[in-house]
Amino acid sequence: MWHDADAMRPQRVSFAVGLFAALVAVGLGSAWLASLPPAIAVGTSYPGALLLGLASGLALAAAGCVAIVAYPDEQFGRLSVVASLSWFATGWTSPGVGIAVLFTAGLMLSAATPAVLAHAILTYRTARKESSVRVVVIAGYAVCVGLLGVLPTIVRATDAACAACPANLIGMTAEPALGRALLQVAHVVAAGWAGAVIAVGVRMTIRTTGAARRTLVPVLAPGLVAVAAFGIDSISSAGRPSAGIALVDRAAWTIQAGALIVLAAGSVLRIARARRTRSAVARIVLELAGTDEGGLQERLRGLLGDPELVLAYPAGGGPLVTVLGEPTVLGTAPGRRVTPLVRGGEVVAAVERREGIAEDADRMSEIIGAAGLALEHERLVAVSRARLAELRASRARVVDANDRERRRLERDLHDGAQQRLAGLALAIRLARSNLSNIGGQGDEEHGQEATLEAAESELRATIADVRDIAHGIYPAALADMGIGPALGALAEDGRIPFHLDAIPAERLSPAVESAAYFVISEAPAVSGAQSARVRASVERGLLCIDLQLDGAHGADLTELEDRVGAVDGTLAADVRGGSVHLTAEIPCAS
Amino acid sequence: MRVVIADDELLLREGLARLLAEAGVDVIATASTADDLLRRVEVMRPDVAIVDIRMPPTHTDEGLQAAEEIRSRHPEIGVLVLSHHVESAYAMRLLEEHPGGSGYLLKDRISDVAVLTDALGRLVDGESVVDPTIVSRLLRRPREPDPLAELTPREREVLTLIAEGRSNPAIGERLGLSPKTVETHIRAIFMKLGLEEGRDDHRRVMAVLAWLRSG
User: Fold this and answer.
1) By CB distance 3.0 to 4.6 Å, which of A13, A23, A454, A528 could disulfide with A61?
2) Is A429 within 8 Å of B19 when comparing Cβ atoms?
3) Which residues of B touch A475 (CB under 8 A)?
4) Domain boundary among B130, B148, B182
């Protein structure tokens, strides 16, 4: 997806700013409430605790607001805001609050933080929810809100320790013994739940790989630490008969508060990282003007940590092509996934990548969004290359068909017409010898003999002509013995002086040999040259032809270019006065 | 003289057999494929085998391959290859291994019975035979510098006959020269071309042909 079409962003920014301001107010208010005498909560139990509680709540609130702006599609932002509210709500349970509604709400919500937190971290950055995650999240709300919040409030489990507390609006009975027993059970269940969350979280970390893990761990790890601290606190509470603040409570609370700050920082780190990625991509865009082909694919491989990533482009409704214009099929290998990159409702490219990177959708879209220009550039290059390859293939087919036709003609002439003409010459010769055997000496016989002799010599000339024509169409030596002997025959033809300074000794592929031969043999004709000099050699997998034509009147090289181009070669001409200098290079790696 | 003729074209094969028979050559067998030819040569041991260069199944150089096989199996049997190809490379391929007793003529010669019987006789004598058209094409090849230009017209004639595979006496007879004069000319030619002069006629042919082909 492309982020540049995000029209709602300004509205989200103003909403988030307003929300954060409100949360700051709530946080300050809650801290003030918590500090009212008799400040008995754990968040006020030691010097600096109040400040730490405020800081961690505000950090979480800030991270949530940032996430609401940056990742509106994800739940993390909203859940973090809720978690921060729940965190602040412990302050409302202070006996000094004085407002019954607030106090009651505080009793119900103050234990909810671990549940919301677990929800936030276990659904962080992932679209699909595994059933284990769903179960754990729902259980979390049941345990933290139900067993540790609403139920103790209903049975007024804490009222005994709180003589100065405001009214509990939903408290039904005041049975401290039952309340304590219920709380103890709730703490045991909560400890078990915390263990489950940690198990699910660890498994999630293991299953996530590469870049996705790098953004998941900074949030998940402190979140799990916070849940673990909550679990330890629960175990310790379950083991104690009376309420009150033990050392372990303070430690667990402090760890939770610290972990929340780390978690908030970790979630913001992802944005910083995305920004860094974006600037890396921006660098690519700048550098791309001079990069070699396939540069974007290489960069994406580096950025996404997938050395086998493939970037391909659709070419005119046909198959996908690489940046080199070669057809390719994506997503055939196991464990590989294909993401189509869409712009304006049209697929402009497709990325095949490792499965694990699927979870890194935002990183991908960051990269693709920033690489839009480079992508478009490469797409155009790929499409034009694919078209060029298609044209080249079609030209090669035309030239190949032409060569095969020439070869067929030459064979037909050789094995058909020439053989028959030779047979005819024999027949005439036999007729002549018959005539002389009859032994006639008259004028008539002499006349017939002369006629037959004339016919025979005419026929011999015809055979020689047909031989030359067949040779010109396609020299048999080219197919039978290669370019060397064929060029040798060209030098022996003597139509014009044809100097062979160097000819390749090795055999090359038939297509290359015939391209090279016809370029060399036809160049004098198309340029009207009076003499020619050729130097042909194989160097580093290239057949290099250097052809000097003198006494030429200029040249139409179209046909020669077609021949060379059909075998992926290049032809260059330097025309100066009466001379044409042709250089051709034909790939001939075998 | 006993010969076997191999050509896939019936008309040519039988016409040639009749023509040679009339000229007094003993045509002991004809063959239409290379395998057939090899079998007949094996059994009949002719003096010379006349072979069309293109024969079934692929019509490329089966005849030439058969000729090469006969020469290496039975060096005493001469081989005359008839071909429509003027490329000197085919003739060289045939002569390279076994120059003496190998001959390469263009197919339009077959109605010239004198040329044919001359060639057959020379092959039986262990000489080489190269078609004059091919030799004259070789002489046309441009050279820089061109040592051929330094040859006298007579020396040029002698060089041509050497390249066609003729022996000293045959050259002398052709040009009406004494054996001594022929030798003098040959020595001069070899010096001007910068060639080692061997006593062996066959090696001399090959040396000259190779020199001419090197352009």
Assistant:
1) A23
2) yes
3) 87
4) B130
- Chain A hits for B148, CB-CB cut-off 8 Å, are none
Q: Could you read off the pLDDT of B24-52 as tens digits, one per residue?
A: 999 999 999 999 999 999 999 999 999 99
- Where in the sequence is the domain holding B182, given as residue range(s)? 135-213
The count of structural domains within chain B is 2
- Is the Cβ of A467 closer than 8 Å to some Cβ of chain B? yes
Separation CA A67–CA A155 (nearest Å): 38
Q: Do A467 and B18 touch (CB under 8 A)?
A: no
The tokens 């043999």 sit on which residue?
A521
**Residues in a beta bridge with B5:** B30, B50
Residue A275 has, within 13 A of its CA and on its CB side, a CA count of 6
Is there a single domain that holds both residue B139 and residue B99?
A: no
CATH number at residue B197: 1.10.10.10
Regarding whether B56 and B38 lie in a shared domain, the answer is: yes
pLDDT band with cut points at 50, 70 and 90 for residue A332: confident
Q: Are residues B76 and B141 part of one domain?
A: no
pLDDT value of position B60:
83
The one-letter amino acid code at A49 reads A
ipTM of the complex: 0.91
pLDDT digits (tens, 9 = 90+) for A333-346: 887 878 777 766 77
A415, A418, A497: residue with CB nearest B142: A497
Q: How confident is the model at residue A5 (pLDDT cuts 50, 70, 90)?
A: very low
**B111 and B141 both lie in a single domain:** no
pLDDT of B149 over the 80 cut: yes
The domain boundary residue, chosen from B130, B157, B182: B130
> Taking residues A543-560, what's their average pLDDT?
89
CB contact under 8 A, B12 and A471: no
pTM here is 0.60
Query: Which range has the worst mean pLDDT, A224-238, A272-286, A535-549?
Result: A272-286
CATH number reported for the structural domain that contains residue B89 in this entry: 3.40.50.2300
Of A418, A488, A531, the CB nearest to B84: A418
B115 and B147 share one domain: no
pLDDT at A388: 86
Q: Are residues B18 and B114 in the same domain?
A: yes
Chain B residue with minimum CA distance to A456: B111
Q: Is the pLDDT of residue A358 over 50?
A: no
CB contact under 8 A, B142 and A419: no
Question: Residue B18: its chain A contacts at CB < 8 A?
Answer: 430
Q: What is the pLDDT of residues B115-127, one digit of tens each?
A: 999 999 999 999 9
Q: Which residues of A touch B19 (CB under 8 A)?
A: 426, 429-430, 433
Q: Could you tell me the two tokens for A575?
A: 């025309």
Give B164 to chain A, closest Cα distance, Å. Answer: 16
- With beta carbons under 8 A apart, name residues in chain A contacting B141: 491-492, 494
